[in-house]
Structure formats: structure tokens, C-alpha cells
Design brief:
20% strand; alpha/beta; eight-stranded mixed sheet; binds phosphoenolpyruvate
């Protein structure tokens, strides 16, 4: 220990130094050693931290506070964590360490260089996930004083409640745990992005690069559709350049944090990477892949023509089912609850039980939200949490739909989560298997909002299908992730969520003469989605929320109490009776059409008779819409509309889309949100399939696009059946696009092959 200095520079670090520089430090050192252009950095070693503890007398004090605490008692755990963190932050850093850090900072480059300060876990078996609490990162640090404080804060992060809990559970000796801190020049990228060094699905030596303006966070988080470049390593040539409209970028915000800002019009459609930079990046990608022996997922940034490689890690999430689950590490953990796996992914965190929407203020970033059932007004809280668990609901309930779009793991229909779990309890949620485990399980990582699209999808896999594969969107924030799947359009945009930000019912806007606000909210929200899908059709569905879903919002008190809201005042039937509510939606559509968004189509939900379609059209015409020249269609989600499809076709629908979530419940009398009958909710019920089959055939006869936007369309087995029965398009959830596209392509090929064989045999 005596031999290791307080500071190690990247160039000095070897793989074996992990105990001194932590996982992050070692990995940066390794990248630098193979010639990748890593931004300059030094590491405040674990030994420096230990010296700090000894010289300040903190080692003993910390030991006293943490000794024998009951980590299962959350209040005790939190208190101990807070006490220790305060001790570490307030202690006076020994002069020798201070001087070393100051001198290294000076040596780094110019005065007051802006750096990122990150903690780096040192025990090899400590996962790098935030379980270990060693994820603390301070960006935009400028000046010696701020740097010294950031280092000390990183040290304190070793004593977060979750970190202490994790170590106690894993049997770590608390007084031997160390932490290193990486201080690295912050690259304020003018352009940045990610690179897959080989094709993430096929493994072919084609390097895929995605780039956009500003910091790389915009690409990683999916807030922008990036340019897409493909470089073939075999021929060493660029084989694909697809430019996107990059309307936003993330840039540094003052001296702390970052902000999302619009990109000036000149750069929006301009190409981010010239040929030379693509080739150079691809070369670095190859170096990394050759060194590590497996394809890499690389983050890069460019400033004033200089390329920096910021991170390189194996593409582990590709093609492996495990990646979504917990790689078997949950095997020995205690299962607390079982429900339906409604949104894939796993995450651990602290339970926060919400019994009333008014309590959502208690929800913090990274918590596990546990509630009876989510509501549209809970969406802001749902965006913050690491996972969602509900008592009620099935695969098509509100919680399931929104979680899938947010990329947040969710388990629904556990029946007793709100009774069995305790506030503050640490659990792990497996949204793939529908399980909730006790404690934090290694391998599960908190999912972030806007989690990456499954690799197969985001890579724009060059699978071309005759059947269009579209995507469903409910919240505008998901538009960029949805577009990143390369989907052929939006087969369902639910607009209920667009007005959520204001937390008021449509009726409230009308009663309070705020019609313009309502129209504007719809206009802006729909526009975000239209902008993300230029030239591709986007079918916007008119309002369809059952009365109970609006109950908690302002104006909700005027919503009627219905015995069965599912069969009640919703969808087109409500709009036809509430002309003003309908008119305001049409006003938003009109303005969008006028602004040139011709790819906007309108879809009416819950139609049961062609007269409703005809009436809706007449009303729209009365409000000045050229109804024969815009795209108007219906959802087939009531058996009546499937049975009467020919009458709808004669009434002039331009498309029809199966809303199987409802079609199933109304055909076989199984409440889609009732966990007691969830196992009888059968999308493949012969009666459901018969209705779908006959409606598809009629649409084909009339040459009208026939699609599906219910959850059943996200099941590859159903997709196979639908293609075999002649469906024109399938609209699936963001996370399902890749597998649906694959299923569709295989089925189409099989059909062609079989037809050719039959022809040959004749
Ligand atoms: C459906 O019913 O299948 C559908 C897509 O609509 P929602 O889930 O919004 O009722
Ligand atoms: Mg429906």
C-alpha cells in the first residue's frame, strides 16, 4: 500500500491495478494503452482514500457507526448512511493528498480545465451498477476548490444506504472497502454518438455508427434521431449514410449539468460525420474489438476535429434473452411476488407504495413504484422510477402500456404488492418473468427512462418486409426511441397522454374556456411524433379514455361514475355526443394538415356501427375538413365492427386496425384489466381469430390497408398468423419491433418459397 502513490495517470495504469484505480480507472487505462484517443485523466487512488480515512481518524468513527446496524431497518440504515457521508464530506483532506490532486490538475492542461469526476469501484466483484452506490459522477467541475470537493463527495458516495445494504448482504468487510476517483478532462463534444464495432445481430464485420450534434447523451438516451452510417470492414468502405432530422441537442448548462436545446435549422438536416471521420472511428472500433476479442459498444465525441473515445464495452445485450433478465442470478433469491411480466428489463431499488395519486411527490428517481393500478396522472412519477409493480391489471393495462414505452421494467397483476411490500424495502423487479425478488440482486441494474431500444431494433437491421412493421406511441417522449426502431410509421398514437402534462380533463378546458390551451397541447404533442416520422404515416387516434382514468385530474369530479367504464362513455361514442371535445381535437388535426403534415391520419376508436363513422366524417366536414382527401380510418375493437366491416368499407374508411386489447375482451367477455381472469384472456381464441380473419379478407377485397395495433401484434406467434392470413401492416410496441420484423420476414419468405415449390410441382 505504501508503494502506491495518491495519483496514477492513465498512461501508468495496467489492468492489474484495479484494486488501486477501480474498474473505471482500469478500463480507461487499458483503452489508452492500446492507442485509443481517450481524454486525458488521472486517478485518485484507493490508497489515497485509505490514507485520508486513517489520517483524519475517520476509519474508526465510520466503523463505530456502521457496526452492527440492522440493514433491513430502513430508517436505521438511512440514518447511518447520512451520518457517515456527512463525516466524510466535512473532514479536512490531508495536505499531501490535496497537494497531489492540485498538482495533477495543474499538469493536466490549461488553467481551470473543466473535468468530470467519477467514482470507481475497486472490489472486482462489486458490480458497477448503482447497487454499489459507486456511480457518483460530477460533471462540469472547474477549479481546484470544486475539484477537491467533488473528490470528497465521490468518497462519501461509498456510504450510500444502498451501497451499505449491498455490501452487508454480500458479506463485505465494511472497513476494507475502498474507492478510487477518476478525474478526466470533460469533452464538450460538438458532435457525438455511439458505434457498434460489428453488426449487433448478425455479427458481420460492418461497423454501425450513430451520431448527432452536441453531447453523446442525446443519442444514448434516444432524445434525438441520429444520423446512421455503416462502414464495411471487409471492403473498408462506407456502405450506408442515412441522415436524420436532428432537431435537439444536449449541451453543457453553465457550470453544472446539461440542457436540451433546439438545434438551429441550418444544422438540423446537415450531415454530422464526413467520410474521413467515419473511417477513423471505424478504425478505432476495430482496434477495440481486436483487443477485447468481442464486438464493442463504443461511445465517442468530437471536438474541433479531434476524436475522443469515451467508453468501450462489450455488446452484451445483443441477441441474448438473458440480457433482459438477470442471467440466472436471481435463482437463489427469495421470490416475494408473482405477476405478469408487462415490460422487460430488471431493476432494483427502494419500494415506495402509492395509495393515492396525491402522494406521488414521495417518489424519487430510482425507486420502485408500487400501486394498485397506475393512472394517466401518475405518468410523471412513472418516468422517474426504476420499475413499476401493480396489484391489478394485465398486459394491456395502463401500467403495462406506459412502462413499455418508457422502457421501465414492470410487473402487473401481483394482486397483493401494496399489502405485502413495505415502504423502503429493497426489491428487485424482473419485468420479463413477472417476478419481484427480495433484496438487490447482482446483475440487475436500474433501468433509466428512455432506456435504449433493443439492439436488434436500434441497429436499423436491414430486414425489408412487404408487410409494414409500425410502432405504437403513447407519450411524445417516446417518439425518438420509437423512430430509432426504423419502424415504417406509427400505427397508433394514443393522444390521452398528450394532455397529461396539464393534469386536467378535456371537459375542464371547455368549462374554463381554455380551449386554445387544449388544442395547443395536442398540436405540440402530435407534432413531436410527426416530426420523428417524416414521410411515414402516423395514425392519430381520437380520445379514448374510460371515465375512471380521468377521475383524479382537475375536472375529474365531473366525470360520470359508471358501473363498467370499459363499456361506457368512451371513444367515438363520447366524441359524437360531446361535439366541442371532438371539435377541439379536429382543430388540432386541421392545423397540422395545414402546416403540411400530410402523413397524419385519424383513427376512430370504439366504433360499433358505420353510422358513427359517417357522422364523425360529417361533423369534420362541417368544421371545414376536406374529408375525402384526408386519411380517416377506424379501429376494429368491437365484434360488431369486425362483423360489419364491409359496411364500413362502403362508407369509405381508408384503413382499419384491430384493437385486440378490446376486441378480445368484448368477444370472450374477459375484462382485460382483471388479474383474476388474466389467464383466460386468450388472443388466439378461435372466435377472435375468426373475426380477424374475415375482416382481413374483406379489407383485401376492397384494397384497404388492414393493420393491428393491440398488444397481440407484439407477439411474434400472432405476427406469423397475421401475415399468413394477409394482414397489410402490424403495429407493435417499441421493444417488440425487432422480433416482429424478424417473424414477419421469415413468414413472408416461407410463403414465397412454398408458393414457388407448389408452382414447380405443378
Ligand atoms: C386496443 O384496444 O387494442 C387498443 C390498441 O386500444 P387501447 O389499448 O388504448 O384500448
Ligand atoms: Mg382499445
Amino acid at each position: 500500500m505504501k508503494d502506491v502513490p495518491n495519483i496514477l495517470w492513465l498512461e501508468e495504469i495496467r489492468k492489474e491495478d484495479i484494486a488501486s484505480v477501480g474498474g473505471k480507472g482500469a478500463s480507461l487505462g487499458e483503452m489508452a494503452s492500446i492507442g485509443l484517443p481517450v481524454p486525458p485523466a488521472f486517478v485518485v487512488t484507493a490508497q489515497a482514500f485509505r490514507r485520508f480515512l486513517i489520517e483524519t481518524g475517520l476509519e474508526q468513527k465510520i466503523f463505530k457507526v456502521s457496526e452492527n446496524i440492522d440493514v433491513e431497518d430502513n430508517a436505521v440504515l438511512e440514518k447511518a448512511a447520512d451520518t457517515i457521508k456527512a463525516l466524510v464530506v466535512k473532514a479536512k483532506m490531508p495536505a499531501a493528498i490535496k497537494d497531489d490532486i492540485r498538482a495533477s490538475y495543474k499538469k493536466m492542461a490549461q488553467k481551470d480545465l473543466i473535468v468530470a469526476v467519477r467514482s470507481s469501484a475497486t472490489a472486482e466483484d462489486l458490480p458497477d451498477a448503482s447497487f454499489a452506490g459507486q456511480q457518483e459522477t460530477y460533471l462540469n467541475i472547474k477549479g481546484e476548490t470544486a475539484l477537491l470537493a467533488a473528490v470528497q463527495n465521490c468518497w462519501a458516495s461509498l456510504y450510500g444506504a444502498r451501497a451499505i445494504y449491498y455490501r452487508a448482504k454480500q458479506g463485505f468487510e465494511e472497513h476494507t472497502v475502498n474507492i478510487a476517483v477518476v478525474v478526466q478532462q470533460l469533452v464538450h463534444s460538438e458532435k457525438a454518438g455511439v458505434m457498434f464495432t460489428s453488426h449487433p445481430i448478425s455479427g458481420e464485420p460492418t461497423t454501425i455508427i450513430e451520431g448527432s450534434w452536441g453531447l453523446g447523451e442525446a443519442v444514448v438516451s434516444g432524445s434525438v434521431s441520429p444520423d446512421h452510417y455503416v462502414f464495411d470492414q471487409r471492403t473498408e468502405s462506407i456502405v450506408e449514410v442515412t441522415l436524420a432530422n436532428k432537431n435537439v441537442e444536449i449541451i453543457p448548462d453553465g457550470s453544472h449539468g446539461t440542457k436540451l436545446v433546439p438545434v438551429d435549422p441550418v444544422r438540423q438536416d446537415a450531415r454530422v460525420l464526413p467520410d474521413g471521420e467515419i473511417s477513423k472511428l471505424a478504425m478505432y472500433g476495430k482496434i477495440a474489438e481486436n483487443h477485447y476479442g468481442v464486438p464493442q459498444d463504443v461511445e465517442w465525441g468530437i471536438v474541433a476535429g479531434t476524436i475522443y473515445i469515451l467508453q468501450s464495452r462489450p455488446i452484451t445485450t445483443i441477441g441474448k434473452k438473458e440480457a433482459k433478465g438477470m442471467s440466472g442470478q436471481g435463482k437463489d433469491a427469495k421470490i416475494l411476488l408473482k405477476g405478469q411480466g408487462a415490460a422487460p428489463g430488471t431493476a432494483s431499488g427502494k419500494v415506495v407504495i402509492i395509495r393515492d395519486v396525491k402522494d406521488t411527490g414521495a417518489v424519487k428517481e430510482g425507486d420502485i413504484l408500487v400501486t394498485r393500478m397506475t393512472n394517466p396522472d401518475m405518468v410523471p412519477a412513472m418516468k422517474k422510477v426504476a420499475a413499476i409493480v401493480t396489484d391489478e391489471g394485465g398486459m394491456t393495462c395502463h401500467a403495462a402500456i406506459v412502462s413499455r414505452e418508457l422502457g421501465t421494467p414492470a410487473v402487473v397483476g401481483t394482486k397483493t404488492a401494496t399489502q405485502q411490500l413495505r415502504n423502503g424495502q429493497i426489491v428487485t423487479v424482473d419485468g420479463e418473468m413477472g417476478l419481484v425478488y427480495e433484496g438487490a440482486i447482482t446483475g440487475a441494474a436500474p433501468a433509466k427512462a428512455g432506456a435504449a431500444v433493443p439492439a436488434a431494433a436500434s441497429s436499423n437491421a436491414p430486414i425489408i418486409t412487404a408487410t409494414s412493421v409500425k410502432v405504437n406511441v403513447s407519450i411524445p417522449e417516446a417518439a425518438a426511441r420509437a423512430a430509432a426502431t426504423g419502424a415504417d410509421g406509427v400505427g397508433l398514437l394514443r393522444i390521452e397522454h398528450l394532455i397529461l402534462g396539464l393534469n386536467k380533463t378535456p371537459g375542464w378546458f371547455i368549462a374554463n374556456h381554455k380551449e386554445e390551451d387544449f388544442v395547443k397541447e395536442l398540436y405540440d404533442g402530435i407534432k413531436i411524433v410527426l416530426d420523428a416520422f417524416p414521410g411515414k404515416t402516423v395514425w392519430v387516434r381520437t380520445l379514448d379514455a374510460p371515465t375512471d382514468e380521468f377521475r383524479n385530474m382537475q375536472g375529474g369530479e365531473s366525470e360520470p361514475h359508471e358501473h363498467n367504464p370499459m363499456l361506457g362513455w368512451r371513444g367515438i361514442r363520447r366524441d359524437l355526443q360531446s361535439a366541442e371535445q371532438f371539435r377541439l381535437q379536429v382543430e388540432a388535426f386541421k392545423r397540422l394538415w395545414k402546416a403540411g403534415y400530410e402523413h397524419l391520419g385519424v383513427m376512430f376508436p370504439m366504433v360499433s356501427h358505420p353510422d358513427q363513422f359517417i357522422k364523425a366524417k360529417e361533423m369534420m366536414a362541417g368544421w371545414g375538413v376536406d374529408v375525402e382527401n384526408v386519411t380517416l380510418g377506424i379501429m376494429i375493437e368491437i365484434p360488431a365492427s369486425a362483423i360489419m366491416i364491409e359496411d364500413f368499407l362502403q362508407a369509405g374508411i381508408k384503413f382499419a386496425s384491430f384493437g385486440t386489447n378490446d376486441l378480445i375482451q368484448y368477444t370472450i367477455a374477459i375484462d382485460r384489466n382483471n388479474e383474476n381472469v388474466a389467464d383466460m384472456y386468450n388472443p388466439q381464441h378461435p372466435a377472435v381469430l375468426a373475426l380477424i380473419h374475415s375482416a382481413i379478407q374483406k379489407c383485401r377485397e376492397y384494397d384497404v390497408e388492414c393493420s393491428i395495433c393491440g398488444q397481440a401484434g407484439s407477439d411474434p406467434r400472432m405476427a406469423v398468423w397475421l401475415v399468413e392470413h394477409g394482414i397489410t401492416s402490424i403495429s407493435a410496441n417499441i421493444d417488440a419491433i425487432a422480433k416482429i420484423r424478424e417473424a414477419v420476414a421469415k413468414t413472408e419468405k416461407r410463403i414465397i418459397l412454398e408458393a414457388a415449390r407448389t408452382r414447380d410441382a405443378e
